[in-house]
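Entry 14. Ran structure prediction on the chain below.
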Amino acid sequence: METGEKNCSSGYGKPPWTFTGRALYQLHLVKAKTARACIPKELRLVEAFGYTLGGFFLANYDDSPAGSFDELVVISGIVWNRPTSCAWAAKVLVNSDEACDHGRKEVGLPSQAARFTKRIEAVPKRQSERGLLNSLRENSNFHNQKNQEHIQVTEMKGPTSIDVCNINLSISVPFTKWMGPVIKMSLPSYSGHSEYTPELLKYSCQIRCRVRAVKPAVVSVELPASTDRAQDADHHSHNTRAGEDAEHEQSLCTSVLLSKPILALEFSCMEMEVQAPTVVSQYFKHSLRTP
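Output, structure tokens:
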């Protein structure tokens, strides 16, 4: 049962909040054991054969209540919400302080400030791509020069920084005239159960965009060597509980990002409306009591 809308007081103004831009929505097969460690134990995970659907949502907004910014949402899995299902975000990384603050306090998201470093690299044509047929393709509007976009995402925690992942995207220049059909969809999600928002919240993203299936992005993460871990064992043993929890959270997000991709969808000409979150009362009643 939902108890009503959560009060919103940020500079975002009154909901719904509108975002425009483009995004990549990539679905992964995530081990149910990993996903369960990310979601509240009161929620039921949607799973089959030991796996659930997770992945990430990588967006570049050219306009929003916080202006232009980048966002990476790490989706740990899908939880059951009769008669449908909702996504659960394990972490949200944004390069906008205003968007980070709004996500934490108003939408109940695990938002963190981050840096997105981008680099585009031209992929050289193979020597075998010659001849009349290739010339015709080059003169066609449907021919694209394939490039690679490299995005390094770094989480910022005060004076320190943590390399989260590197994402390599295949992009086409120039873009084809056909960017897929125009569709409308609703992406419901749970949030909350956090330092800033202890309640369980539910919100929905209404998206209108052109969508097409694309080659999945390649995600890589620089993992510390086992020798480094051994040398740092004494240091880690003196870490605070908060530090240990943060390290565990990062490990879970890494597992989600490195899981097997099964589908990648490119959203272009995207317009997304985020509704005001509502407080859901049937969960966490006992969790919010003081022991």
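The mean pLDDT is 83. Will compare against last week's run tomorrow.
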